[in-house]
Amino acid sequence: MGSLRREGDGDQGCVMSSAGEAFIQQAFNLIDGFDDMSDPLDVQQRVLDLVKDCGFTFFTITRLPQPSERLAPNVLLSSWPKGWLSHYDRVGHYRYDPVVRHCYRTIEPFAWTEVHYEPEILPRARRVMDEAADHGMAVGFCVPIHDAMGFQAVVSLAGQQVEMPPRVRRGVHMLGLYAWGAAERTTARRRKPTGRLLSTRERDVLSWAALGHTSDEIAAILGISCQTVNTHLKNARLKIGTRNTTHTVVEALRRREITL
């Protein structure tokens, strides 16, 4: 993998101090303009037009699903190379992607070259990154997103050769945070409601479980038997595909089946 070049003696692109200041100003202008945008493709193109001056030619804004899930249904905006996302999901890259794994470990923005490859997944992790490079994404930069409920998302930018001095890096970080908000807002209207996976009673039981109540306590609160509570918990686990109540609660919260 290549490395992101930092500010040095050159005077090209974002490396120039004056160009860096210009980028920051343009980023602020774009952030101010997000409020007036209603078309997600407009958000996507405007972000891409700005960051391409640093060498980024591709980017995506996506929620981060569980390892067993596909990435594609969670993508809000994407200018990834044609065929990459379908290939990525088809061969199961998401589970082994070292960049994705790093997003769960930090709230700080990071270059792909700063990512540690876990030994147990090293061959698959290298395959993910090598194939990304083959698709024109040799280097990249990520802005992890963590909302108030703790759910993860990421703004990921990539290209063949990137120039990004520290000040511009901070500007891209700021831009990524606001771009996520704009993507979430503008795509909300076009996303089709998926409907509820869990029944009303299953959501009731999980909501009380999320507050730390035992099966016996939930049974008393809802006026049903403990066996019925456990049946609802089991059915919720089967529907969501989880192994225990704690995991089911976490997934139900993430999927907005329940709220606290």
Short description:
The chain has 260 residues and is an alpha+beta fold. The chain has ten helices and five strands, in the order ααββααβαββααααα. 47% of the residues lie in helices and 11% in strands.
Structure description:
This protein is α+β, with helices and mostly antiparallel strands and 260 residues long. It has helices spanning 17-34, 40-51, 84-90, 98-103, 122-134, 166-188, 200-210, 215-222, 226-240, 245-254, and strands at residues 58-63, 75-78, 110-111, 139-146, 152-159. The protein has two domains: 13-188, 2-Layer Sandwich (Beta-Lactamase), CATH 3.30.450.80; 200-254, Arc Repressor Mutant, subunit A, CATH 1.10.10. The protein contains ten helices and five strands. It has a five-stranded antiparallel sheet. Strand 4 (139-146) and strand 5 form a beta hairpin. Helix 1 (17-34) runs parallel beside helix 6 (166-188), helix 7 packs across helix 9 (226-240) and helix 9 packs across helix 10. The longest helix has 23 residues, at 166-188.
Which overall shape is indicated by the principal axes computed on the Cα atoms?
elongated
Q: What about the largest sheet?
A: 5 strands, antiparallel
- Low-confidence runs of at least 5 consecutive residues: 1-15
Full CATH superfamily name of the largest domain: Transcription factor LuxR-like, autoinducer-binding domain
Instruction: Give the helix level as a range of percent.
Output: 40-55%
Percent in strands: 5-15%
Protein name: HTH luxR-type domain-containing protein
Domain HTH luxR-type: 191-256
GO molecular function: DNA binding
Organism: Methylobacterium currus
